[in-house]
UniProtKB/TrEMBL annotation, chain A:
Protein name, entry field: ABC transporter permease
Alphabetically ordered keywords of this record: Cell inner membrane, Cell membrane, Membrane, Transmembrane, Transmembrane helix, Transport
GO cellular component: a single term: plasma membrane
Domain of life: Bacteria
InterPro entries, A to Z: MetI-like (IPR000515), MetI-like_sf (IPR035906)
Domain ABC transmembrane type-1: 65-254
Gene3D superfamilies reported in the protein's UniProt record: MetI-like
Record keyword Membrane present: yes
Topology class, membrane: Multi-pass membrane protein
Protein source organism: Streptosporangium nondiastaticum
TM regions (residue ranges): 12-37, 64-88, 100-122, 128-149, 185-212, 232-253
Subcellular localization: Cell inner membrane; Cell membrane
Similarity-based family: Belongs to the binding-protein-dependent transport system permease family.
Coarse class of the protein's main subcellular location: membrane
UniProtKB/TrEMBL annotation, chain B:
This protein's UniProt keywords: Cell inner membrane, Cell membrane, Membrane, Transmembrane, Transmembrane helix, Transport
Compartment(s) of residence: Cell inner membrane; Cell membrane
Family: Belongs to the binding-protein-dependent transport system permease family.
Organism the protein comes from: Streptosporangium nondiastaticum
Keyword Membrane (UniProt): yes
Topological type in the membrane: Multi-pass membrane protein
Pfam family, one: BPD_transp_1
Listed name of the protein: 2-aminoethylphosphonate ABC transporter permease subunit
NCBIfam families in UniProt: PhnU, PRK15050.1
Length: 263, 297
């Protein structure tokens, strides 16, 4: 307890909320309110409406949502497999440092540059991916693999080796130790990594703007297109859909996590 | 392609005991995949940046780009906005984390949860919200014209570097708060109680007890945020500011809008070098922090 007098404590807390609420809570409140409003030219929005959401439900915005979810699922799966494999294989070998640096590198490189690099590399045969949905999925997978790797590598460091040593000493093959001992123990951090990868991929804009083909428009691109042509209120509705989908995925994943932790 | 991948994915573990594959060889498939889709394309960007349009190889594209006023503006904007945002996020994040950790209040855990969720949302949502709050027809200006009767409000900074700065400080402050909250939770409360019982006032405790403990987390969070600010694209794109160009926006503009891939690659290389240098610093600080923690434990 840093501040002992009750009055001073209340003052500090008041200052905290006076700073925290306008800076961090207001943005989300404003977006949600705007998505339900017909106009906003004063202190408060004017006219409540669900039109923006109706437009989302029947327009091509629904396609964008499906596109985003499919991209995020595919990219997260690829990132989890690659990141987990790399973390498991590099554990305890001399290659660990190098692999760690390599797999965390995509975080340090600007996402726009990752997009540019894929454009430069995959625009010609034999690897002609430019203009296909695959190049968007690939970019997302590269960008989120770093988080999957870091999460699994950190969990492996904390893992008690006694369980797998016991299994191995009882004659279990390395494959069986992996599938029946190590992966179940890693399940909580794997699901946390999955949630993070999904969320990051859902909101990815930078590399996507460089790469998206006309028939594979993820939701963030759609939000940008709407606000860029001045349609702020439909844009806000799309942003709410994006946030709700991300939150649903994160909640589902944390459910799995608590269940795995209890087992 | 998919079926061969699946096959090779299954083979190594079963083949392990018989073939005696060295343990490090299992690392090769994921590293090869990363090399094919990430490292090789990056190398191609580097190669393209030294292969000017006219043929041959050399640094003429670099000379061209460096001579452009647009590039120099973008470089200056990028560095200044990133430095300003990082400083702002550090100050704000430290103050907020301090209150959450040491002046507990009901709902503090919920605030911590909110910070975690905040981190998983895309950055451009902040700019979108700011458009409603400070935009030309937004809340703040609406209140002003309503109160004073003026034709237009005074808030017109969203399309300037200040708008980008405000959005980046808002978005990146939680990235500073999370490592700080972790560091604060490891500080012994007894230390603070002793300092207080010896007569130290709160500011002195913060300066002499808490700050030294939090310094590694502050440094690590700060350099991570600096790198992320240098690479930020969505916030700048959404402000739609013609006057504010940063290096990532310049890469996008040159490649997609102008079709000048060589120029885009040159800017990309400059951006990568800047970010990697700072990221190397970040890794150095975090590994040192780990070392200190392990030594203490």
């Amino acid at each position: 307890m840093l501040v002992h007098s009750p009055r001073a404590r209340r003052a500090v807390q008041a200052a905290f909320f006076a700073l925290f609420l306008p800076v961090f809570a207001l943005p989300f409140l404003v977006i949600v309110t705007a998505s339900l409003a017909t106009g906003w030219s004063g202190a408060f929005p004017s006219g409540a409406t669900l039109d923006h959401y109706r437009a989302v439900a029947r327009g091509d915005a629904l396609d964008a949502l499906v596109t985003s979810v499919l991209t995020a699922l595919a990219a997260s799966a690829a990132a989890l497999v690659t990141g987990t494999w790399a973390a498991l294989a590099a554990r305890g070998t001399r290659a660990r440092r190098v692999v760690g640096v390599l797999f965390v590198l995509p975080v340090a490189v600007p996402s726009v540059v990752v997009g540019l690099a894929l454009l430069v590399a995959f625009s010609e045969p034999p690897f002609l991916l430019n203009g296909t949905p695959a190049i968007v999925v690939l970019a997302h997978a590269i960008l989120v693999t770093a988080f999957a790797y870091q999460s699994v590598a950190a969990a492996l460091d904390r893992l008690d080796p006694a369980c797998e040593q016991a299994a191995a000493s009882l004659g279990a093959s390395p494959l069986r130790v992996l599938v029946q001992v190590r992966l179940p123990l890693l399940l909580p951090s794997l699901s946390a990594a999955a949630g993070l990868c999904f969320a990051l991929s859902m909101g990815e804009l930078s590399a996507t703007m460089m790469l998206y083909p006309p028939d594979w428009l993820p939701l963030p691109v759609k939000v940008f297109a709407a606000t860029d042509r001045g349609a702020l209120f439909p844009g806000a509705a799309l942003a709410v859909v994006l946030m709700v989908t991300t939150l649903l995925a994160l909640t589902a994943v944390s459910r799995i996590r608590t269940r795995a932790a209890y087992r | 392609m998919a079926s061969t991948e699946a096959l090779s994915g299954r083979r190594p573990p079963t083949a392990l005991p018989r073939l005696r594959v060295p343990a490090w060889a299992l690392v090769l498939p994921p590293v090869a995949a990363l090399g094919l889709v990430f490292l090789h394309p990056l190398a191609l960007v580097l190669w393209q940046s030294v292969s000017p349009e006219g043929g041959g190889h050399g640094f003429s594209a670099y000379a061209d780009v460096f001579a452009q006023a647009a590039f120099r503006d973008a470089l200056r904007n990028t560095v200044l906005i990133a430095a300003g945002s990082t400083a702002g996020a550090l100050v704000l994040g430290f103050a907020l984390a301090l209150v959450i950790a040491f002046v507990p209040f009901p709902g503090g855990r919920a605030v911590g949860r909110f910070v975690d969720v905040f981190l998983s949302f895309p950055s451009f949502l902040i700019t979108l919200a700011l458009l409603f709050v400070y935009g030309s027809a937004g809340m703040a200006n609406g209140v002003w014209t309503g109160v004073t009767g003026a034709a237009s409000g005074p808030f017109d900074f969203l399309h300037t570097p200040w708008g980008v700065l405000l959005a980046e400080i808002t978005y990146f402050t939680p990235f500073v708060m999370r490592p700080l909250l972790g560091a604060f939770s490891r500080i012994e409360t007894a230390q603070i109680e002793v300092a207080a019982s010896l007569g130290a006032k709160a500011p002195r405790i913060v300066r002499q007890v808490i700050l030294p403990e939090a310094l590694p987390a502050l440094a690590a969070g700060g350099s991570l945020v600096l790198v992320m600010c240098l690479n930020e694209f969505g916030i700048v794109l959404f402000t739609g500011a013609k006057g504010v160009t940063t290096l990532p926006v310049l890469v996008y503009g040159k490649a997609i809008l102008d079709g000048d891939y060589t120029g885009a690659c040159v800017v990309a290389v400059v951006n990568i070098v800047l970010s990697l240098a700072l990221y190397g610093l970040y890794r150095m600080l975090t590994t040192r922090m780990d070392g200190v923690r392990r030594a203490r434990a």
